[in-house]
TrEMBL record:
Keyword rRNA-binding attributed: yes
Cofactor: Mg(2+)
Protein name in the entry: Ribonuclease 3
Domain DRBM: from-to ranges: 166-235
Cited Gene3D superfamilies: 3.30.160.20, Ribonuclease III domain
Annotated GO biological process: mRNA processing; regulation of gene expression; rRNA processing; tRNA processing
Name of the encoding gene: rnc
A GO MF label: rRNA binding
Top-level taxon: Bacteria
Record's catalysed reaction(s): Endonucleolytic cleavage to 5'-phosphomonoester
Complex formation: Homodimer.
Residues binding Mg(2+), per UniProt: E52, D125, E128
Similarity annotation: Belongs to the ribonuclease III family.
């Protein structure tokens, strides 16, 4: 590893507010398979896939343990849905973007040209790999604290809303932050027989259509419309 790479990784540790004694491990976590395969180094540099596998398991353990203790009355199905929301690709990519993780990922030429540094799948995988590296370097206690602190906002919302924390609620909270208060869900169409209707709904924010959705009930259609509005407003929903 050259001096410039070491300094970059030290800077990243400061941004992440973590300590890493083994910067080579962190560099491996941020080495995409495309870079390793194209490298002319002998032997080929290690890539991130094994650390990604480990990080995925560590994330699952930390989040599952938190939810098991925080929500003693939830059944396995409900816990699974909440965990899926917290560790989905969009959520992990969002955290990666916040710290500018893409800048530090080593990519092959093809991935670089195609915008790999901003691709959600690559960012989410890199985030998992970094978690895996941090776990190996510093242990479970520190990585547990790091993950729970990083996901504090989502965890607080889960504690407040549980499974009732849905896209409509999320949209309401998002727009209220910006001082936008008028949200209207408007039924646009209903097709099909009475026993199998499909409802089409639009969500209007301050009179402007921001999302449309369909569903087998008005509530489902409204949820889908709210999700589309969130995506339009730049929220990384799962």
């Amino acid at each position: 590893m050259n001096k410039e790479r070491k300094e970059d990784l030290k800077d990243l540790c400061k941004i992440l507010s973590i300590e890493m004694s083994d910067l080579y491990l962190l560099s491996t976590a941020l080495t995409h398979t495309s870079y390793a395969h194209e490298s002319k180094e002998i032997p080929k540099p290690a890539h991130s896939e094994r650390l990604e596998f480990l990080g995925d398991s560590v994330l699952g353990l930390v989040v599952s343990t938190y939810m098991y203790r925080r929500f003693p009355k939830m059944d396995e199905g409900e816990l699974t849905k909440l965990r899926a929301h917290l560790v989905c690709e969009a959520s992990l990519a969002k955290h990666a973007r916040k710290v500018g993780l893409g800048k530090y990922i080593l990519l092959g030429k093809g991935e670089l040209i195609s915008g790999g540094r901003e691709r959600a799948s690559i960012l989410a995988d890199a985030f998992e790999s970094v978690i895996g590296a941090y776990y190996l370097d510093q242990g479970l206690e520190k990585v547990n604290d790091y993950i729970l602190n990083l996901m504090q906002e989502e965890l607080l919302m889960m504690a407040k809303h549980g499974l009732c924390y849905d896209y409509k609620t999320r949209l309401q909270e998002m727009v209220q932050k910006d001082g936008i208060v008028e949200i209207v869900y408007q039924l646009m169409d209903a097709t099909g027989p009475d026993h199998d209707k499909i409802f089409e709904t639009a969500v209007l924010i301050n009179g402007k259509v921001n999302g449309q959705g369909s569903g087998k009930s008005k509530k489902e259609a409204e949820q889908h419309a709210a999700k589309q509005a969130l995506l339009k407003l730049g929220d990384n929903v799962c």
